[in-house]
């Protein structure tokens, strides 16, 4: 039997995503279940987490399963990913063994592995999670690498519940870059772009300059999604026109891809665009728009206190939904 992983929402049909979202909504109404009774998931964190770790561990528990958290290089052996590597540096074991051994113990493997931020040509290969998917004999779930599919599902469920309909077509959606003192992962931006277009919304990607456009892979996914599902994709560098009439504002900061590995050269551009902060004045331009963010969020840097504390902010609902959508994904994958 072919193992079905959850590495990207683009690998899953709209019908499958709709089924998962419906199951997630059901779990939100009644949290307990037995879909993971007697089953276990290993959660491998190469990077920090608050929401992802908590919601996966809790979700497994609520479905009768068990979660084991491992932090390679901290509480588990450091792992080598290069095929044919002479392992005379830090790594003590190869992913070929790690993935196959874990597959003998557990029914699912979750992986969080961020880019190294030195060379985007290497980071865009997403080697860590693809190596686990290659060697594991159980399903692998992306807990954020260069995309964040669990956040995508939680985001869409929050919008569906906010608007009271599963049909998001015709909504004007703004994905806005925001300032942050450090260059961050493009994962959530890539994900927001692909899932918003997947659900047929009229999407504007608002970013400071063309250098902040996302990797062509995700720009192409978005254009293909528009062709397949309707809606539209617009690129803007002007906050006022982008926010005007918006129904959804989704914020994220990310590093400009041409500057990977030479971030000091990006800093002046970044610093010149602190005004991309989500504030009351910009939200006033929207059509009673809602605001969200994947969290964590630096207040009064990415969004003001007033926006975060306003009724328009649905970031906490979205964070809660991580629990429900991940339960739906774990239940589906563990019972293929
Ligand atoms: N949004 C999200 O993935 O949060 P954590 O980094 O805290 O897991």
Topology of this protein?
Layout: H1 14-29, E1 40-45, H2 51-62, E2 66-70, E3 79-80, E4 93-94, H3 95-105, E5 108-112, H4 120-123, H5 127-135, E6 140-142, H6 149-163, E7 172-177, H7 187-198, E8 202-206, H8 216-229, E9 232-236, H9 239-243, E10 248-252, H10 263-271, H11 280-283, E11 290-292, H12 305-308, H13 315-334
Parallel strand pairs: 1-2, 1-5, 3-4, 5-6, 7-8, 7-10, 8-9, 10-11
The chain binds phosphoric acid mono(formamide)ester.
Description:
- The protein is α/β, with parallel strands linked by helices and about 325 residues long.
- It has two domains: about 10-145 and about 320-335, Aspartate/ornithine carbamoyltransferase (Rossmann fold), CATH 3.40.50; about 150-320, Aspartate/ornithine carbamoyltransferase (Rossmann fold).
- The protein is about 40% helix and about 15% strand.
- It is built from 13 helices and eleven strands.
- The strands form three sheets. A five-stranded parallel beta sheet has the order 9-8-7-10-11.
- Strand 7 (about 170-175), helix 7 (about 185-200) and strand 8 form a beta-alpha-beta unit.
- Helix 1 packs across helix 6 (about 150-165) and helix 6 (about 150-165) crosses helix 7.
- It is globular, with a radius of gyration of 20 Å.
- The structure holds phosphoric acid mono(formamide)ester.
- Phosphoric acid mono(formamide)ester (CP) binds near residues 51 and 52.
Q: Nutshell version of this structure?
A:
The chain is of the alpha/beta class and 336 residues long. It is built from 13 helices and 11 strands. The structure holds phosphoric acid mono(formamide)ester (CP).
């Amino acid at each position: 039997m072919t193992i079905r992983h959850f590495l990207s929402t683009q690998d899953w049909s709209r019908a499958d995503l709709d089924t998962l979202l419906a199951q997630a909504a059901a779990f939100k109404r009644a949290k307990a279940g037995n879909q993971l009774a007697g089953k276990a998931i290993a959660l491998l964190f190469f990077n920090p987490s608050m929401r992802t770790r908590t919601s996966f561990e809790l979700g497994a528990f609520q479905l009768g399963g068990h979660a084991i958290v491992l932090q390679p290089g901290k509480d588990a052996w450091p792992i080598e990913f290069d095929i044919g590597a002479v392992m005379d540096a830090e790594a003590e074991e190869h992913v070929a063994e790690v993935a196959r051994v874990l597959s003998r113990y557990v029914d699912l493997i979750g992986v969080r592995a961020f880019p190294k931020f030195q060379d985007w040509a290497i980071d865009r290969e997403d080697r860590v999670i693809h190596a686990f998917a290659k060697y594991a004999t159980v399903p692998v779930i992306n807990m954020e690498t260069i995309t964040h599919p669990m956040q995508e599902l939680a985001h869409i469920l929050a919008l569906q519940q906010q608007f009271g309909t599963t049909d998001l077509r015709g909504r004007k959606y703004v994905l806005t870059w925001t300032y942050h003192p450090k260059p961050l992962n493009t994962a959530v931006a890539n994900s927001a772009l692909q899932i918003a277009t997947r659900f047929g919304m009229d999407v504007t990607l608002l970013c400071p300059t063309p250098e902040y456009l996302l990797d062509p892979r995700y720009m192409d996914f978005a254009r293909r999604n528009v062709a397949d599902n309707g809606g539209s994709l617009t690129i803007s560098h002007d906050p006022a026109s982008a926010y005007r009439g918006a129904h959804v504002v989704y914020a994220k900061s990310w590093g400009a891809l041409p500057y990977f590995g030479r971030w000091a050269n990006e800093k002046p551009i970044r610093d010149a665009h602190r005004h991309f902060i989500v504030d009351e004045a910009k939200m006033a331009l929207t059509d009673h728009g809602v605001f969200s963010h994947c969290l964590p969020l630096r207040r009064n840097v990415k969004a003001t206190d007033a926006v975060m504390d306003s009724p328009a902010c649905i970031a906490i609902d979205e964070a809660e939904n991580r629990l429900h959508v991940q339960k739906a994904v774990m239940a589906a994958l563990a019972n293929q």
